[in-house]
Specification:
Number of strands: 14
Distance between the termini: 73 Å
CATH class of the largest domain: Alpha Beta
Shape: globular
CATH architecture of the largest domain: 3-Layer(aba) Sandwich
Largest sheet: 7 strands, mixed
Strand order of the largest sheet: 7-6-8-9-10-11-12
Helix content: 40-55%
Radius of gyration: 22 Å
InterPro entries: AmiC_PBP1, Leu_Ile_Val-bd, Peripla_BP_I
Number of domains: 2
Number of helices: 13
Structural class: alpha/beta
CATH superfamily of the largest domain: Response regulator
Protein name: Transporter substrate-binding domain-containing protein
CATH topology of the largest domain: Rossmann fold
Amino acid sequence: MGNADEREAVRAASVAGAVAMKRETVPVSILYSTTGAYADVGRQAVAGAFAAISEINADAGFSFRIEPKIDDPAGRAERYALLSEAAIRQHGCRHVIGTITSWSRKDVLPAIERHGALLWYAFPYEGYEASDSAIYLGACPNQHLLPLFDHVLPRYGRRPFIVGSNYIWGWEISRIAREMTEAVGGQVVSERFVPLGSVEVDHLIAEIAQKKPDFILSNLVGESATAFLAAYDVLRGGDPSAPPIVACNLCEIELGGLTPSASAGHISASPYFNRLDTAENRDFKARMALRHGSDHRLTTPFVAAYMSVSILAQAMQDAATDAPDAIRRVVTSRLFDTPLGPIAINPRTHHAALRPHLAISNADGEFEIFHSAASPVEADPYLVHSLGQPLAADGPATDTMLKVIK
């Protein structure tokens, strides 16, 4: 058989195997579109969810194993509710990790609420929502758009051109941006929307060339965002002084496949970037490098889905159940370790307090962080009492109040 150490290793493995066989299996729905108009984002999210599930299932410290129920709605609105309903009723899933766009989240929530399940939503969104049946781990406007505009309005000018995908995310972020611009005496020079997934953007570029805005706010999603970045690069012709494209949902994925010139010079607001230099992210990247290779670039969607599964698992371990009511109580009563740092979730709004970062993209398709909030910002999904930073590039601080009413 071998020496005593080998025999002990075999015995320990046998015991671990027996324990693993006794661990309860918990079904969890993973609902991201891995085909369709924003497939690259969905595939990254699924990869992040699987990375977390693999860690949890390999950790004997958890008293359960997660069994993922994977569905691909293919970016089609009518499939989200049907697939979430099937996951809950036919497969016993009490938790749905997923949806990317706001219309897909809103399509899923009625089924989630009807069956007493819980949705884990981790992407930036437009706010004006708070459901007892959802945990919001993505940033809302006071955690992305407000700090972004507090930076760009005094530095680039008060005449933005706004473009977005033609659904609730594009509409609402555009509306809030317009109110912020007008509140400081500025004017939106144009506001345009294109169908979700459309890559026909030449008319937008032509209008930008004609109206010469101070900067461009892009609320485009997926393939539309990438096509727009490529077309705008042709217009600016490598001129570093050209008006920048700024966004609240632009990450490393949209820069993939672009030329170095088209990738560089765009400003984004997010609670996570691959180059976030914190102890938590360094540790996370080291673990992911062991699994995926040292050259694997982490993205915001990957981390968002990973974080959703990880927090759910930690809460299930604490609660000794996957019952949504018990999970809600745990999730809103303690801090959770994440790649973003410790995360707290508000018991009233179910939104996470997040630390906003501003970053500019480079020719390598990475984002270099140039400003970070001093501490996590409590979510204010209805913008009832958000304080904006001073809208001045220099000079003394003078707080301004912005109240947006829908």
